[in-house]
Write a structure and sequence with these properties.
The longest helix is centred in the C-terminal third of the chain and has 14 residues. The chain is an alpha/beta fold. The protein is 42% helix and 17% strand.
Length: 111
């Protein structure tokens, strides 16, 4: 199961679900108050496999957390910010070229 950070447009959950990827959002989990390594800890405890985020500063703390949780992955979405439907269109276009493939124990930048 994938976890979408609070800064990721909610509309992506439906897109991913249509592609057979179970996902949840941090706000629906009640985790909006958790930051970086605490969020990774909570996600791992709930058996999430990866976190999608747009937080560029997540990298430093994620690197430390991933050392403790080598089965978990972080995906930094680098698409330009835009209105929700514009963002979804850009996401879909990139997905068709190169779907996200989380790498356990690593933070990757996508696309």
């Amino acid at each position: 199961m994938w976890l979408l950070d609070v800064n990721v447009p909610a509309i992506l959950a439906a897109f991913l679900s249509r592609r057979g990827i179970a996902c949840a959002r941090t706000d629906r989990q009640g985790w909006t108050h958790l930051k970086n390594s605490d969020l990774v800890e909570a996600a791992v405890q709930q058996e999430f496999q990866c976190l999608l985020t747009r937080d560029k500063l997540f990298g430093e703390s994620a690197a430390r957390s991933l050392k403790r949780h080598p089965g978990f992955a972080v995906v930094l979405l680098s698409l330009r910010q835009g209105r929700e439907h514009e963002y979804l269109a850009a996401f879909e276009k990139q997905w068709e070229k190169n779907a996200i493939e989380p790498v356990p124990g690593k933070m990757i930048v996508w696309p």
